[in-house]
Amino acid sequence: MSNEVWSHISRTIDVNEPLAKNMSHHGPVSWTVVVLTCQHKDSVYAFQKELKLRQQRGYLPQEALLLTVSDPQERLGSGGATLNALLVAAEHLSARAGHTVVTADVLDDAHILILHTGRDFPWDSCSRAFCWLPVHRPQDLVEQPICCLDLLLDCLTHQICPGSPAGVWVCSTDMILTLPTAPVMSWDSFSGVRVVSLPSDVSYATRHGVYLTDEQDRVRDIIYRGSEDRIRQAQCPDGKVPLVSGPVFFCRQASERLLQTHVTPPLDGCTYMGMDSGAPSLQLSLFLDILLCLCLDVTEAQFVDEERQGCASAVGLQGAMVRSARALLWKMLRGTPLSMVYVPDGQYDYMTMSGDEHVKRITEKGIERETLSHIQNLQCVSEYSRVINSMLEGDVKVSVGAVVQHCHLQGPMVVPLGCLLSGLDLTTSNSPLWLTLPSDIIIQRHHVQLGELKLIVFTVLGRHDDLEVSCDHTATTFLNQKWTNFYHCTGIQPADLWGAVDESAGPRCLLDARLFPVYLPSKGAVGLEGVEWLLGGTGSVKQWREAWRLSLREVLLCMDQQGELCWRDNLFLQAAQRRAVDALKARTDRSLLPSIRAAVLVGRQEELLETLDSVAAGSTKDLGIAARCLACVADVLGCMAGEGKGGLRSGPAANPSWAPAFALLERGDLSRGVKALAAERKNWLSRPDLLVRAARHYEGAGQILLRQAVMSAQHFVAIGQGNVPPIGEWQEVECPARLDLSGGWSDTPPIAFERGGAVVNVAVKVDGRRPIGAKVRRIREPRLLLISTSGAPDCQVTTETVCDTLQDLEDHCQPHAPGALLKAVCVCSDLVTVYSQQPLQEQMLQRWGGGLELRSWSLLPHGSGLGTSSILAGVALAAVYRCTGRTFDTDSLIHAVLHLEQVLTTGGGWQDQVGGLVGGVKFARSSNCLPLRVQVEQLNLPEDFLQSLQQHLLLVYTGKTRLARNLLQDVVRSWYGRLPSIVENIDELVSNAEECGRACIDGSLSRLGLCLDHYWQQKKVMAPGCEPAAVRAMMDALRPLVLGQSLAGAGGGGFLFMLTREPLQEKTVKSVLGRIQGLGDFSVHSVEVDMQGISFQRPSETHQKDIV
Predict the structure, then answer these.
(1) How far is residue 19's CA from residue 343's CA, in Å, rounded to a whole number?
(2) With 0-12 CB in 10 A as exposed, 13-18 as middle and 19+ as buried, what is 430?
(3) Is the model's pLDDT at 6 over the cut of 60?
(4) Cα 397 to Cα 377: distance, rounded to the nearest angstrom
(5) What is the pLDDT of residues 737-783, one digit of tens each?
(6) What DSSP letter does each residue of 206-257 carry, written as one string?
(7) d(CA 754, CA 589)
(8) β-strand pairing of 934-938 with 921-926
(9) Residues 6+ apart with CB under 8 A from 443
(10) N or C: which end of the chain has fewer CB within 10 A?
């Protein structure tokens, strides 16, 4: 296969990649039954488990019946295996439908897929089907390997089979099919059998088979391993020939005829029922028996009597039975139409017995240097090598063209040019072999079972050795050297390998040479030293002869595939945990959710939880890492609960059982806090609802650490001391609202300090007024009088709170407590010390000579999206600072609000206070590091652009409200999970902010409008559901009038702002919205850019009698 083909494979299995060109216009097939056949009964349990895993991972339909069926006898043939598999599928469907006998009625609506694993594969202990490939799907919901079976399932389910009627598809798993485009097939009124063929060169086809067809694509003959002249008879106009490529479809009627064979001697000899009934065994080929009898040019005499390669002989001991079976097939099936679909751009790669071809397939055609592995020193691994499902510790050099799969290696060691190592566990080996290993050597570790004895067997072969050619041929090799050289170097004789010469036994080939020591009666199992000696290491021919030995064929026949798959799964999970640790410590964007789901799926979550605990407890110098670890623990618990089970992930997190652990975290004792969390966690694992509640508390614990990290912004708060104003003098501060033009959500911790944030926003007056303000005066009575007013003038709500004691302030960190924001202002401005032995009144008298009256107001509706709460915190802090004679600058105020919102536990980003406290249009950013610092640049706009902006900018109150806090937890969770869509969207938010800034500086309203539209789409990615239906209707109606539009803030309601195409469009907008039925209350408001930002009013005196 070409590199382009492998690139195509990688794209087709990326769930985020549009597949319109690759997929059929029909949806994927929803299989009723998937049957996997295998040669050995010992494979059934292991392969069934693999199928079930793919179903659990979402790769096979959840409702599909999965069956693994062993051939009832050896050498059953692909046709016999198909008949047996169809019988088993029909039997299970009949039982499921309540029938007591097998009935063909169950085929009426069934879509059955039969996959044959075929012969043993020398380069993978678990057959070609489960051979891992260097392909990775980072967008998968569940991390999983990609095997040949997975590529085939993807190709069949999404490209070849969609649209087909009820019936049976049959395909081998011994090849890789690649279809850049889905074949066009008409299934209208289809009846008969259809084969799918891919193109091939004539020379390649001589080792396989081709279809010979007429002008209507009806199959005339199947030419199997013919001469080049014979093969050319099937040549297509493109110069290629249609290869016998695998997929075959039998319609409902044809499938019923195949099913009838289980009660028709001697054809019943292919099925397990026939064997159980004493019928003699029968070998049938799918292509050269079942399909050949349907070919137009084949006569009955030819079909029944002729000898042909690739199927059972019509002469000899079983000749009469074979001829009888063929005669019955002719009678039952002849007349059924057989047609071909040719896919001219498809590619077919048969997995031969050649080690050289296999290594080339993995290295030259692969696209991933490292697949599902953990490599400590990646620089030691050549770009042109492949490491699959392995752990490489220390200096393990992997040379060009080498493959390491399913290995755990400890350096120093070298994997030379062109070698393949499979299944090795070399964490303790000090053998010098690994520093002198020759090139092009294949070493494999196999799990075998000899009766009740389970052993590990090592085999070694040369990459260029031919396994099946007679070793008597002078050109044949072992370990890439001639046999004569090997005999001379080792003292081994041919009789040691094959026994006495037996002409009737067939040619002596490498596959049957008993080369590999397994067990020494005097010492027990033989380890890797057995093959080291074959490669020239220490040992002796005497000891080699004393050992029980196996040939490669015998090793494959005795394979413990369950043990082999278990080894691979353990490596897969261990490597995933190590990659998770690396991702956490390096603060990379790799999502751990697929690995978490994979671990939970197989019940290995406890090891993962312990790993996450360890990383969290050791991250005292980077609380961002610790917080992400706790969020990952929450994800593990959520996965354990099950999708949609146990309740919503967002919810309260203040159960008293978790309070001791939370207290330790609050005090900064991270290590003990994480241990206390883990101890409490054990009490919450028994039910889905408890698991979800535990997940909420882990997210709550993460929020504690996140708050502590964000509080590092306090480093940039510089407060000076000036003159304290007299008692009774009001200090009044006003601020505009803010409109976020681009970049919002990138300012939200932890995104703001892990990725870096960038925002463009503008300070605005609404209907000519600064809508947010606060005023403070000192009063004689030593208490705090806190009065807040909010809402539009016609529906204002005022709350008055009096604090006489410190206990009255203890709920300052509970956002929904009465007066919580103003209480937090009092605490964070150091007006009082809450946790002190000194009573409130004493503190007030000692520090300020009396109490304070603090009044705040907002003329904007609740949930407006205009940054009200953060700006209100800023003006209230500013007013308190001025009233107590302290000095500050705007930069300090911005960071002080960040600190206050962490104390208040509302979280949130920094863009709101930047938008209101700093006037005009500005570009603000934070770097991807702690401490969190916000830098603001007020943009110098062309004067005519500023005037034009004010004429084209409008606000519409939608009448819908939604709190940003309702969205915040989901966004932070998505970021901690590093969902690829979120990571990509954050980058786009930042780049859009940069373009927005350039558009403003250049004075381009049209480009600014495009940025607004892009920004709204980005907001919807961050917070799905932030666009109510009524808002969508408004935006659709206004689209012809605007250059761009977006809901302000987090969305979900509040204010919609727009940049109109024409100036002064207030009346037009009202008219358009007024025609929308069922819209409810809305209002249109004018906007004026406020160049000043925070505004300090002239101090005002109050009469003595008004002072409390």
Answers:
(1) 18
(2) exposed
(3) no
(4) 9
(5) 999 999 999 999 999 999 999 999 999 999 999 999 999 999 999 99
(6) TTSEEEEE-TT-BEEEEEES--HHHHHTT--TTS-EEEEEEEEEEEHHHHHH
(7) 10
(8) antiparallel
(9) 419, 420, 421, 422, 424, 458, 459, 460, 531
(10) C
pLDDT tens column, 840-860:
999 999 999 999 999 999 999
Residue whose entry in the numeric block shows the structure tokens 């929450």:
634
d(CA 1094, CA 1083): 26
DSSP assignments along 838-855, one per residue: S-HHHHHHHHHSSEEEEE
Amino acid occupying residue 853: E
Interhelix angle 319-333/252-259, rounded to 10 degrees, is: 150
Q: Among residues 244, 228, 242, 231, which one has the least CA distance to residue 174?
A: 244
Judge contact between 615 and 671, C-beta under 8 A.
no
User: Are 390 and 575 spatial neighbours (Cβ–Cβ below 8 Å)?
Assistant: yes
Q: How is 1032-1092 classified by DSSP, letter by letter?
A: HHHHHHHGGGEEEEEESTT-SSSEEEEEESSS--HHHHHHHHHTSTT--S-EEEEEEE-SS
Q: Which amino acid type is present at position 424?
A: L
DSSP string computed for 601-655: HTT-HHHHHHHHHHHHHT-TT-HHHHHHHHHHHHHHHHHHH-TT-SS-S------
Over pLDDT 70: what percentage of the chain? 95
720 token code pair:
């000076």
Q: How many CB atoms lie within 10 A of CB 328?
A: 18
Tokens matching residue 902: 């962490």
Q: Radius of gyration over alpha carbons of the chain, in Å?
A: 37
The residue whose two tokens read 């090795």 is 424
Helix axes 561-585, 43-56, angle to 10 degrees: 30
Q: What is the pLDDT of residues 960-1000, one digit of tens each?
A: 876 444 578 889 999 999 999 999 999 999 999 999 999 99
Q: What is the pLDDT of residues 466-496, one digit of tens each?
A: 999 999 888 899 999 999 999 999 999 999 9
Per-residue DSSP letter, 941: -
> Length of the chain in residues, anyone?
1108
Helix, strand, or coil (residue 864): coil
Q: How many angstroms separate the CA atoms of 473 and 297, rounded? A: 40
Nearest to 329 by CA among 289, 280, 275: 289
Residue 441, classed as helix, strand or coil, is strand
Q: Is the pLDDT of residue 4 over 80?
A: no
**What's the whole-model pTM score?**
0.89
Q: Cα(first)–Cα(last) distance of the chain, in Å?
A: 88
Preceding amide of 771 cis, omega within 30: no
pLDDT tens for 1038-1072 read: 999 999 999 999 888 899 999 999 999 999 999 99
Query: For residues 933 and 941, what is the distance between their CA atoms, to the nearest angstrom?
Result: 25
pLDDT mean across residues, the chain: 92
pLDDT at 503: 64
| Band (1108; pLDDT cuts 50, 70, 90) | very low
Nearest to 1096 by CA among 829, 911, 875: 875
What number of other Cβ atoms are within 10 A of residue 469's Cβ? Answer: 15
Residue 52 carries which side chain, given as an amino acid letter?
Answer: K
Burial of 648 from C-beta contacts in 10 A (0-12 / 13-18 / 19+): exposed
pLDDT in tens, 496-549: 999 876 666 678 999 999 999 999 988 889 989 889 999 988 889 999 999 999
pLDDT score of 340 more than 90: yes
Q: What is the pLDDT of residues 236-261, one digit of tens each?
A: 999 999 999 889 999 999 999 999 99
Cα angle for residues 406, 411, 414 (degrees, 5° grid): 80
Spatial contact of 1069 and 1060, defined as CB atoms under 8 Å apart? yes
Cα separation of 1031 and 85, whole Å?
Answer: 56
In this structure, are strands 1095-1096 and 731-735 parallel, antiparallel, or unpaired? antiparallel
User: Would you say 780 and 1107 are in contact if contact means Cβ atoms under 8 Å apart?
Assistant: yes
